[in-house]
Amino acid sequence: MIEENDSIKLLNYFELNTVKGGGSKEIAGNLRKIRLSKEITRTKVADALTVDVTTIARYEEGKRIPDIDTLIALSKLYEKKIEEIIY
Questions:
Q1: Consecutive H or E run containing 5
Q2: What structural domains does the chain harbor?
Q3: Which domain of life is it from (predicted)?
């Protein structure tokens, strides 16, 4: 049962298991769009994060979701808030 209390919404079990934004598709599209708008290659991003270029490709293709440390590094590199990357 869903109850609403002013601005707080209590979620049931199934709703708690549903990610509202921040899924691989949202993150992937945002990462690619931001990188292209900054005119940075995947190779340069990979070098800055000291990861393989295929890791960046997987992030942008939605095959892998970056961990929080990587999201922080990407937000600094792209000069964007984490919220702009995950939503």
A1: strand 3-5
A2: 23-86 (1.10.260.40)
A3: Bacteria
